[in-house]
Amino acid sequence: MSELQLDKKLCQENCTEDGVQAEIIGALKTDFDRTYAATVTAKNLSDTKLEECSTYWTHLHDNSSTANTNQEHLEKTNCEVSLKVAEARNTFHSSWKSRHELHQANTEMVFNQSIDRNSEFRTIKIIECLLDRVLDLNYRPCDTAEGVEGNVTFCENNWTNIEVTLCTTHSHLCITYDDPPAMPSMPLEPDATCSAEWDADIMQVLPVVPVAEFNASNPGCNSYPACQICTDFGITIPPLVPTNYHKWTNPYDSDFAGNHTEASATATAANYTGAPGGVNYD
Fold first, then answer.
1. What is the number of domains present in the chain?
2. What CA–CA distance (Å, rounded) separates 124 from 26?
3. CA–CA separation, 155 vs 43, rounded Å?
4. Which residues form the domain of 116?
5. Is residue 186 part of a domain?
6. pLDDT of 235 higher than 90
């Protein structure tokens, strides 16, 4: 019996009659039973949905906590990597700088000492030449034969360019000054944690957090936590040491070539201790 039919029944007939009352009660009970069943079904469905929502909320909460922990771990790890890279680069460049200074001092020491040895070698060869001239003159002194000046000039002319002559006739005595090894590749410096580069490379590629208005198709969730800089983890990244230090120069092009005093001072500054008794070019 519909609601309209029930209204007509109540208005048009004598509701005090047993038959009418029974009919009305029966109709109401039928409606009640149907409505009650629908209500129970709706409640059960609501309980099921509520349980599903609770499960999803728990998953969201747990995953959000995990994501926050992972983000913090990522930020701290990037700081730790940045620290190691900075320390490695600084240690390398400090050592590389001192190695260039030491190599410069060593090669300049050898170069300047070789100048002395070449001069000594030239003197010996001139003396040998003069002795040969005396022999050619049948052991007559040079000054009683063709004259001292002419014989000395003759012998000296054979060794005018000591570098060319020496390297041509005694190549094993010529020193080749090879360049030191090229600087190896350095580890790349990571983007500073929480910097604009970091945000663009790391944070902006993450899924966008939903914003209000929230509904069934746009559920709300926890926002990303604020980025923590390295000092928040007790990590201080040292500044990089300058890398524009002096690189090794071939001693032929060095300002100290042939200058024993300046080369010795350079070697001393580089803490060169390879020469017996300390640094000594003389």
1. 1
2. 142
3. 122
4. 3-181+191-269
5. no
6. yes
